Amino acid sequence: MNIRQKLGRSKRWVVKVGSSLLTNDGQGLDRQLIASWATQIALLRQSGVELVLVSSGAVSEGMVRMGWTERPHALHELQAAAAIGQMGLIQTYEASFQAHGLHAAQILLTHEDLSDRQRYLNARSTLSTLLRLGVIPIVNENDTVACQELRFGDNDTLAGLVANLIGAELLVILTDQPGMYEQDPRSNPDACLIREARADDAALEQMAAGGGVGRWGSGGMLTKVMAARRAARSGTATIIAAGRETDVLQAIVSGQETGTLIVPAEAPLLARKQWLANRLQVRGSLTLDDGAVKVLTESGRSLLAVGVTAVKGDFRRGDLVSCVSGAGQEVARGLVNYDVTEAARIAGQASERIEELLGYIDEAELIHRDNLVLV
Fold first, then answer.
1. Domain count of the chain?
2. Are residues 241 and 285 in the same domain?
C-alpha cells in the first residue's frame, strides 16, 4: 500500500477551501459547488472520517453583496465585508449539510487563539467535542476583529494550525489549480505538476513564490506550502488539489494521484513529539503511580488524575508539564488541562469526582492522549 492509499484510509482530516472557489472568482457564492463538497464530506463522515472544514469566503461574499469589484485596503472596510459575508457563507453551508442530515457548527478564530495556551486547549476541546458528536465544524478566521492577519494573512495558515490543533492525519487544501507546479502555469503552459514533495524541501518555497495572488483572496501557492510545513510539524501530510474537480475528495479517499502531496519529513509520532517538546518550556511535573506509568507507556491512553500522586511547579491550563515515575524518571510530556492548584486538588481522584471537587469540569483527563508524548 503506497502513501496515498494510506492517507485515503486516515480518519481525521482538515479540508480548506479558498475564496476564489467559493465565490466563483467573485461572482457570488457557488452554491452548487458547495453542495458538491457537502455531499462528499457526508460520504466521508459515513465512512468514519472526522473532518474539520476551514473556509474562506466571508470577505469575498461581503464584497459581492456590497457590489465592490476590488478588495478593499482599509482594515475597517475588510472587517465590515467579513461581517456582511459571513452571514451568507454560513447559511449556505448549513443548508448544504442539513440536506444530508448533518449539523454544522461555526468556529471563528484568530491566530492568537491558537498561540495562547489556555485558548488553544479551549479550542481543541470544543473541536474534539463537535467531532465526537458527528458535527462538521466550519472554521474561519474571525476577520471582524483580526488585524494584521486580515491585512496580510490567509486561511491556509489557519488550516495548518488547525491541523496541529486536532492532530489531523491529512490536510486537504482545495484551490482553483490542479496542484503545485514547478513554474507558474499561467506564464509557462509547459510547466510540470509536482506530484509529491517533502515539506522540508527548500526548493518548494522558491517554486511557489511566483504563483501570485488572486484579487478575491489573500493567499497564493506560497501560503499553501507554508501551511503544509506548519501541518508537518505535528506529522500531518498535505494534499493541494483542484476544488472544482468532480468528486475530488473521493479521489483522495481512493488513493488516486490527485494534486500535489506534501509529506512531513518525520513520522507523525516523532514530529508531534518534537512539536510539543519545542513548543513550550516545562512548567511543572506530575508524579505518577506505577499503574499510570504502565497505562501511558504500554497503552497510549490519556493521563487521568487518579494516577497522579504528587504535583509540583507553577503551571496553568495549557502549559507543558513533565510526567515522572515514582523514581523520578521522566516518562512523558504533555499539555495539562488544569492549573497547578486544581491539579493538586484532583490528584489521586477518579474523573467522576472532578466536578464535585472543583465545582466544574473542563476535561475528564488531566492530559489528553492527543497532547501527550512519551520521552
1. 2
2. no
Domain membership flag for residue 305:
yes
User: What is the reported pLDDT for 27?
Assistant: 73
Examine the domain organization and report whether 183 and 48 are in the same domain. Answer: yes
Cell of 305: 488524575
Exposure class string for 184-215: b at 16+ Cβ within 10 A, else e: bbeeeeeeeebeebebebeebeebbeebeebe
At 276 the pLDDT is 66
SS3 content of the chain, % helix, strand, coil (to 5): 45, 20, 35
Residue range of the domain that includes 334: 280-374
Q: What is the rounded distance in angstroms from the CA atom of residue 85 to the CA atom of residue 67? A: 12
Closest CA to 229 of 155, 163, 140, 284: 163
Closest CA relative to residue 196, chosen from 4, 6, 13, 11? 4
Provide the 3-class DSSP secondary structure of residue 139: strand
Q: Is the dihedral of CA 222, 156, 333, 344 positive or negative?
A: positive
b/e 219-239 (16+ beta carbons within 10 angstroms → b): bbbbbbbbbbbbbbbbbbbbb
User: What is the pTM for the complete model shown?
Assistant: 0.80
Domain edge (last residue) among 268, 296, 329: 268
Grid cell 465526537 is found at: 132
Q: Are residues 260 and 173 in the same domain?
A: yes
Mean pLDDT per block of 10 residues along the chain (375 residues) reads: 92 92 78 95 96 90 87 83 89 96 92 76 90 95 62 72 91 92 79 90 75 46 89 91 95 95 78 62 94 92 96 92 95 92 96 94 89 85
**Residue 214 identity (one-letter amino acid):** G
Q: Any residues with CB less than 8 A from the CB of 174 and at least 6 apart, and which?
A: 15, 16, 17, 18, 21, 37, 241, 242, 243, 248
Indicate if 191 and 89 belong to the same structural domain.
yes
In whole angstroms, how far apart are CA 2 and each of 132, 196, 211? 29, 12, 29
Same domain for 296 and 210: no
- Single out the residue of 64, 234, 66, 216 nearest to residue 162, CA to CA: 234
Q: Are residues 109 and 248 in the same domain?
A: yes
